[in-house]
Amino acid sequence: MTTRRQFLHAMGLTATGLALYSCNVGKPPTAQLSEAALAVEPVVDPKTLEKPNITVGYVPVNDCAPFAVAYEKGFFRKYGLNVTLSREASWANSRDGIIFGRLDASPVVSGAVTNARIGAEGARKAPLCAAMTIHRHGNAMTMNKAMWDYGLRPWHEYNGNLEEFGRDFRGYFDALPPEQRIWAVVLSSAIYEYFARYLSAAAGVDPIQEFRIIIIPPPQMVNNIRIGAMQAYMVAEPWNTRAITGNENVGFTFAQGSEIWYGHPDRLLGVMESFINENPKTYRSLVKAMIEACQYCSNPANRPEVAQLITDPSFTGAKPKKGAIDKFTKPGIVGDYNYGGFDNQQRIISDPYTTIFYDSPPKLSYIPGIHSTFLWQSQSLWLMTQAARWGQIKEIPKDAEKKAHQAWRTDLYREIANEMGIECPKEDYKIEPAEFFIDKKAFDPSDPVGYLKSFEIRANRPQSLFLS
């Protein structure tokens, strides 16, 4: 039980953190470029670009790594860009900054671009575009200590038994008063919300009826679960690792997002369609710089350095009071991932694809030319099925494929990648195999409506009436 004193103390910490946090918004990470960046010789003359001086957003989570690297290592400079990095307070700010013209480009949560095109409830309707992902995976679900004490455990300890997990999950929420049945995510109408709902429904618990979902910015997650504002949350690293035993001691990692859908896109490089049309050369330079930054982050030899780089207050500011400087950021970047727990057991799983920045894992490498920054329009269609599944749109758009093409610009990416000598997949669509999803349900993009109707738990599903 949280006392009034504990609540006020935690809220004070949150307010102080936000005050300090907001001081950094809009400021570049350093007063001037690093020596490494200044040493890079541009291959593109800034004078040839329509808009060489641009402002690019980022949010203080691990996936700011490619932006930090592009800035510190001179990839922006290499392609003729003078970039001001703007630290955004939330994922809504990151998205809205693009839409309202404060930012030229920024990472957005997967789903934000698609849902802006289809006008999903909870998303701003705007002609957003993306030509590349920033990373895949790199996120997780954290549950509080009370859920552990009830008997819930990390997903991999259930050995794929959704029924067993469902009993534990339902039992815990049934014992709570309705006002406490809360799950937090970072943005509405986006993949984290869909994952929270997808997992619950897969276990037989209707997320519409059983609990509600609230929106909280990443840096506020740990304090809010500490004071009991929610029972669980989904967020990018390092805000799951910070919660576990030995760090903040307020929760444990239930599952990484890759355990819900393996290979899913997490962050996209978002821009307005008008930015591409008005600044085609600038846009090409930006994408090239970000591809090279993602390649740098993907190299195992560079990951320890990257994990340390993003601890800087200008990026995540995730420095522990005690222990190694990269204690919070390293697990998600290097791949020695600790699920935590409250029984003194080791739950560390080593996987270099905990976050995928560029090189694809063997599980995904059956398609020639596949790499992480390439977008699949079929995955945009999957996001539309979830928007329809949870009532954010009435139905999957009749022109869903057209909207997917407008939003996820694989055509542009192929042109840009070709200029860099990078091979790409020839198709825009692929089937997501059953083994990639937690409920073992494959997604065939040729029949999104059939896929949607295959789910028993969904909004606006037909109701059976019994007369006696």
UniProtKB/TrEMBL annotation:
Keywords: Cell inner membrane, Cell membrane, Ion transport, Membrane, Transport. It is found in: Cell inner membrane. InterPro entries: NrtA/CpmA_ABC-bd_dom, TAT_signal. GO terms for biological process: monoatomic ion transport. GO terms for cellular component: plasma membrane. SUPFAM superfamilies: Periplasmic binding protein-like II. CDD domains: PBP2_NrtA_CpmA_like. Belongs to the CmpA/NrtA family. PANTHER family: ALIPHATIC SULFONATES-BINDING PROTEIN-RELATED, BLL4572 PROTEIN. This is Twin-arginine translocation pathway signal. The lineage of its organism: Bacteria, Bacillati, Cyanobacteriota, Cyanophyceae, Oscillatoriophycideae.
